[in-house]
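Sorry to interrupt, but I need a hand with the structure work. Go ahead and set the record down below:
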Amino acid sequence: MRKDSKLSINLILSSLIVGVVIAVIDIIFEISLATLLFSGSEGEFVSRGIGLLLFGAMVVGLIVALTSSLPGMIAVPQDTAIAILVLITTAITTAMAGSPVDEIYLTILTAIVLTSLAAGIFLLITGQLRLSRLVRYIPYPVIGGFLAGTGWVIFWGGLTVLMGTPPSLVNLSGLFQSDMLALWLPALIFALVLLFALRLSRHPLVLPALVVVATALFFLWMAMSGTSVEQAQANGWLLGPFTEQALWQPYPLSAIRSVNWSVIFEQSLQIGAVLIVSVLALLLNTSGLEMTTRRNIDLDRELRSAGFANLVAALGGSPVGYQTLSFSAMAQRMGASTRLVGVFMAIVFAIVLFAGATLLSFFPKIVLGGVLLYIGLSFLVDWVYDAWFKLPRSDYFLVLLILVIVAAVGFLEGVAVGIGIALFIFVFNYSRTDIVKHTLSGESYHSSVDRPAYQRDYLRQYGGAILIMQLQGYYFFGSAYHLLDRIKRRVDYQDTPPLRYLLLNFRLVTGFDSSAASIFARIKQMAETENFVLVFTNISSEFKKTLSRADIIVKDDQATRLHESLDYGLEECENRLLDGAGLPLIEEGVNLQAQLKNVLSDSAKIDRLMIYLERRVIEEGVYLMRQGESSDSMYFIESGMLSIRLEMEGGRHTRIGKIYGGTTVGEMGLYLGRDRTASVVASEPSTVYRLSADAFQAMQHDDPQIAAALHQWIAKLLTERLTENVDTLRSLLD
């Protein structure tokens, strides 16, 4: 009991330490992001923005900590969503230039609230519908371009925070004037120090330690230069002064009348982008966390958890927040995988939120700007420098293209162009892939029908008139055209028998579009012109309707055939080929003695063998063998037809073979002594001769010459079957 108590105390203490450390680090980030969020607005909005983000960190972090599928999960308002929110707040500020300050702030605040509410609903619905797997369909270079664009927006926003106005790409020389250099160059140096330090060490205390050192150096410089706090505030070097003691205030519902709704509606596309980005970033973060922690995470539950958290936090004006990879992984690595981490973090946020305005007002803006520049640079280094060594060149240049479009035109335009190009590349590459998995010939690939030797010999010699194509993948005009081209080459090839039957097996086809029907119409025209039969097998009901509407499949059309499986379709083609050669499938009036002349040429030996056989006549539907029974005999089939089938649960069965007269069945079981692996049932009235295990033993004892001849014949039969199987396997591997 004492041991458990000690363990609980240690766990609580570790959770407290980790929660405080992560909260302190995140406060720095949230202050930096708030400064960025309101960089295009009046300076007094910054303090309110800090309050909004700290409130969001407190509420979102607490709710996700309590409802996540992974104890120790950390969630806060994050940079990717805020990068787009910056575009919204800047556009609103620009559109309302000259309006009262409070009206501008209320419009911005309302836009943030509506965005967070919409994001919360969208996350909830996405999680409820279990759509988390859709993230795997986003092209990887598009994600990289989106993150690189996010880095650019944050980096450029950091310069805006430092300089007070957005820098101009047209007149970059202005950045290098002495008064401007003093504003952003120290922050850039600090950002580079952060970047190199955090790439060399992932210790959680590196960032806060460097922030403390940078802040101390700033105030040391102020003391050495004789600059007072008032002068620093007047020059805009400090974050304050703040006019309110409390950073956060509730959303004033009574002021809704002052909101400029038309300006907000103009940002609908940007708001929609925040929803997509939030889902995407959340799923990417949690998927990465699964790999980092090697623990399964319920992604749909994480979506619902973040959705509910955003709905609650939106009521207090919080921007969109969701699970973070870095802080969550930090908590796991530091051994604090408990929900208490989020609780302690929320307590720290609450203390700063309601009692820390005065302290934050003395925070150097140059340090915050440096943190923003670091965040932006970290994205850019990951996806512009590191990606060069990791991505294929085509993917890498797509990332760069998206980044350039984001910087020159806009965020949504860059991502939209990236998705469009990625889809084009995918379609182009997919159209070049081989949509025929196997191309087989009727010479080496046969149906499961066990035929007499003379029929097998004919098919091995002339089965090349049957062409089998195992199709795969998704069919549209581009990929289906390659199928048409391959069929045409086979028709024109002079060194093979004329094509009589073309079997197209659709078992591995995942889908198709309407344009594919035009290609199959041309294949049918070719079949009619070149006089071969087109056989469709394993075709879906949906595709069958499409082909019927295009008059490719017509009732009683001799040019096309439909079969539920490749085996049935191939059997019909073989039967037609044999029938056309004048080889009957069932030889009427041929008794077993005549058939055995291929085994025992001496009539006297045949008569001696017949002594040991028991003649049976079985009606249609009667079982000759049952699956699971002991193998106590083999059968010579004189006439009729039998089916070999696997029995399954629920009375279901599937055919795996067919046997005609002139063949045998059960010899493997008789030799091995194993239970029957399948059932044999008469498909029509049949006549068979049974050789029981006892009669077989008696033959070996009383007439070893006949037994030896039978052994030799069965060995030849099994060798032929093995050879056919090897030929089939070789054709599948070619």
